[in-house]
Design brief:
Radius of gyration: 14 Å
Largest sheet: 3 strands, antiparallel
Strand order of the largest sheet: 2-1-3
Helix content: 55-70%
Distance between the termini: 8 Å
Oligomer: single chain
Structural class: mainly alpha
Length: 68
Amino acid sequence: MIGIAKTIKDNVQTCTREQLDQALDSPHVAEVCQAIAEALQKHQQGEMTREEFEAMKSELKKKLPVFT
């Protein structure tokens, strides 16, 4: 069984196949993943320290759905 929560702060509920597909196809999830990828690129180019990247990534990941 898979559980889902909209964010790390929400309660986990049983996840249906439709909810899983909806979460994975969500424009919000794509935007957050794109922001993390852009931050990684900045880090790799020396525009952001490792600590700055990790802090940003940590905050952005809190906005993603949680699966258990």
